[in-house]
């Protein structure tokens, strides 16, 4: 399921697709140049990165002009136009000051914005930044892209597979093929060539000394394909309040290799006390959602094991996004096939999330069993345990494909606020539960 797209209109009238996830203080994320962000939503590694940021921030992301759901076929990809796009997104979705994260080729845009709008940017984070496009044009990465120019024009499929293989060579799964598929649909060949060329003309050098926000510069020591380390260190030296951190590793993608070290450095800089560990899970009373794919054995036989697992991984990432959007906490380590488990502090939001998860499963062709119960849980090692979790799982097992069943406890908590109807399914005997539990089927009110 793709993110819920909104549109901001840039100064020149260009439509920029943008969206949010999570809650809290805003963090605006300026992606690398050629990534139509929305196309990569279901890539599991990227989805987990998004979830980690959204666990502590209102994460605001957008498709750069010419990519994804943003307006395509443009002539102007200049630095001025791109800064105006960021201004439009920030005005549309961020209230007050926010943290700004600029990735690789997106860093000159973030630097220029921070310099021009010091009142809007509390903290600036930059990954392998450069401020002058001439420096990027000298990098091994740009020279490799330039050598593939004719391939992009003549064989787009081969081009995107080559780019994905180079950028995600260290992926231990089929991530490179997933990225290639996403990239194939996120930008047109003629647009990517114009974008590549435009970035060589970026020059935000004069903005470096004007940045007033505390700034974190992140890089990996072993990465040489991106802009040279001397350029990254020059940026760090010329921004007045910059803090430079060189991490170990040779993966140019921040979601590969030791991604946790990137998050730890990020959360430490932003003043998060838990240094990037998983968000706290509630001990005490919680509303528990359990989801599992209906007839997974039959689907595996029909689709084949590899195809089924691929679809299940995509759906798993989608469900976790839906859960986050409804202020729930998905439990790591519980994957589709073993079930997706999440906890909420609100029965209404848990029911809304369950219904949205049901729609996502139907859209993916993988209908879900969905069950909700409320009770005490115990947190241990980033997991939750207790009899209430077992009851939620058993209730899910009673549901028909695509149906949401809830215990009487959840129904009593939500019936005056959820905006849904409940149908009594009577008392049910649940395996491992001493007394029968009354369950209710949930339907959306039309």
Overall 3D shape: elongated
Helicity, as a percent range: 40-55%
CATH architecture classification of the largest domain: 3-Layer(aba) Sandwich
CATH topology of the largest domain: Rossmann fold
Structural class: alpha/beta
User: How are the strands ordered across the major sheet?
Assistant: 1-2-4-3-5-6-7-8
**Poorly predicted regions:** 273-283
When the domains are counted, the total is 2
CATH superfamily of the largest domain: Alpha/Beta hydrolase fold, catalytic domain
Mean pLDDT across residues = 83
Secondary structure: number of strands? 16
Largest sheet report:
8 strands, mixed
What is the CATH class of the largest domain? Answer: Alpha Beta
Radius of gyration: 23 Å
Q: Which strand-content bin applies to the residues?
A: 15-25%
Q: With helices defined by DSSP (H or I, 4 residues minimum), what is the helix count?
A: 17
How is the topology of this model organized?
Elements lengths: L5 E4 L5 E8 L3 E5 L13 H11 L3 E5 L16 H15 L4 E6 L3 H10 L4 E7 L5 H5 L2 H8 L1 H6 L1 H12 L7 H12 L2 H11 L5 H4 L6 E6 L8 H10 L3 E6 L11 H11 L14 E10 L2 H8 L1 H21 L3 E2 L9 E5 L2 H17 L4 E13 L2 E3 L1 H12 L5 E4 H7 L5 E9 L8 E8 L2
Parallel strand pairs: 3-4, 3-5, 5-6, 6-7, 7-8, 12-14
Antiparallel strand pairs: 1-2, 2-4, 9-11, 9-12, 10-11, 12-13, 14-16, 15-16
Helix pairs in contact: 1-14, 2-3, 7-8, 13-14, 14-15
